[in-house]
Write a structure and sequence with these properties.
Among the domains are: about 50 residues; about 110 residues, Tetrahydropterin Synthase, Chain A (2-Layer Sandwich); about 35 residues, no CATH class. It is about 55% helix and about 20% strand. It has eight helices and nine strands. Strands 6, 7, 8 and 9 form a four-stranded antiparallel beta sheet that branches. Strands 3-2-5 form a three-stranded antiparallel beta sheet, covered by helices on one side. A two-stranded antiparallel sheet has the order 1-4. The model has no long low-confidence stretch (mean pLDDT about 80).
């Protein structure tokens, strides 16, 4: 019995010491609201040890570091009628502990309230933008959401400062995604058909241009060939004329050779002549036999 009595007395002493504790501590990352019978009487913002009235006053301490609140997936209808599912988050911190305690009292309640305000701000601000702008996370839309959320928090007097708003994830609803996929596929097929048609047209243009160039080159070559041949013929005539003038006997002999060539050139000509025929005398005696 004595041991149990001693233990009971020790517990009672400790409980009394705790209940009568006249000191509380505020850490570096905290601010405290001193409550007297549950009502705020003063705010302690600097870290350190503070005195309080035992049994009369208590301290509610709040972490003033930045915290994050996230929204559930929210469907947004853009100004162009496009539907998007948006998942966003916001950074905030407690800047007025007394107002925070009176309006919210607890961090869990604060997160629920901030989530509701963020969702409402997203629907108001992003609803005036196109689905394309929302999906690309344009800065103007996010700034508008941040300003709206700050304004709503100030009007509600929550003692909260909103630091930033960001979109975590943006996607199309399943039904809309399928429709967009079909449209994109149809558009891709149409573009592919147009590209193929342009390719066929370009091929025809290239072939036509090449054929025109070939015809032009061939015509130039034929013209040049005829010109060179004409010049050669003229030189031949001039040379023959000069040779004929110098040696009339040679001229007659050369003309006879040309006659032989023209007569026998095809290879299918048959001549039946007597041995003393004048046409064959050059084969028998040569030019000296004349």
């Amino acid at each position: 019995m004595k041991a149990r009595s001693i233990v009971a007395i020790a517990i009672a002493v400790v409980a009394g010491a705790v209940a009568l504790n006249p000191v509380h501590m505020v850490r570096q990352s905290q601010q405290a609201v001193v409550l007297r019978f549950g009502r705020p009487v003063r705010v302690q913002t600097a870290p350190g040890l503070y005195l309080q009235w035992p049994l009369i006053e208590t301290a509610a301490r709040f972490d003033t570091r930045s915290r994050t609140v996230e929204t559930n997936q929210t469907e947004i209808i853009g100004a162009d009628g496009g539907r998007l599912t948006v998942d966003a988050f916001a950074h905030y911190r407690i800047h007025d502990p007394e107002r925070f305690y009176l309006a919210l009292g607890h961090r869990r309640v604060a997160e629920e309230r901030m989530e509701a305000l963020l969702t409402a701000s997203l629907k108001r601000t992003l609803g005036s933008a196109s689905a394309s702008d929302i999906s690309h996370g344009r800065p103007d839309e996010l700034v508008a959401t941040l300003d709206d959320l700050r304004r709503q928090a100030a009007l509600a007097r929550l003692g909260i400062e909103v630091l930033d708003v960001r979109l975590r994830h943006v996607e199309l609803p399943a039904a809309d995604a399928e429709a967009v996929y079909r449209r994109m596929r149809a558009s891709g097929e149409q573009q592919a058909a147009q590209i193929r048609a342009d390719g066929v047209q370009r091929k025809a243009e290239i072939i036509g241009d090449a054929e025109r160039q070939v015809a032009s080159i061939r015509g130039d070559a034929q013209g040049q060939t005829q010109r060179i041949r004409g010049e050669g013929d003229a030189q031949r005539v001039a040379v023959l004329g000069e040779a004929y003038g110098r040696d009339p006997a040679f001229a007659r002999y050369f003309r006879e050779m040309e006659a032989y060539q023209n007569t026998l050139a095809q290879g299918d000509t048959t001549l039946i002549l007597s041995p003393d025929n004048a046409f064959l005398r050059d084969f028998a005696k040569g030019p000296e036999g004349r």
